[in-house]
Amino acid sequence: MTTMITEVYNAFRKAGVDEETAEKAAIALTEEKNKEQKDVEQKIHDIDLRVNSIEKLLFEIKAENKINRWMLGLIIAIQVIPFLREILR
After folding, report:
1. What is the pLDDT of residues 11-46, one digit of tens each?
2. Fewest beta carbons less than 10 Å away: which of 25, 59, 81, 88?
3. Residues 6+ apart with CB under 8 A from 19
């Protein structure tokens, strides 16, 4: 037997709906609820994948930025040291 929300089934029965129709309605609502839950879980999974991708890109950007700062410092040193030698002579 397919699972159903018993509260919905009982509510339909109390409202005077016949047993078969109440059962089908409760099962349909349960299936819809399960489908919506799966959709939400899939969207959460997709968001997690995007966040992980963004975190990876951010890590790569930070690493590249660190390398660029070292390179800039080296270039400045190479340009400034000869200039300072001339001034201090």
Report:
1. 999 999 999 999 999 999 999 999 999 999 999 999
2. 88
3. 13
Residues with Cβ < 8 Å from 30, sequence gap 6 or more?
2, 3, 4, 5, 8
Q: Tens digit of pLDDT for each residue in 42-80? A: 999 999 999 999 999 999 999 999 999 999 999 999 999
How many whole angstroms separate alpha carbon 23 and alpha carbon 5? 9
CB 29 within 8 A of CB 38: no
d(C-alpha 14, C-alpha 33), whole Å: 22
Tell me how crowded residue 13 is: count the other CB atoms within 10 A of its CB. 15
Q: Which two tokens stand for residue 29?
A: 């609502």
Count CB atoms within 10 A of the CB of residue 23: 18
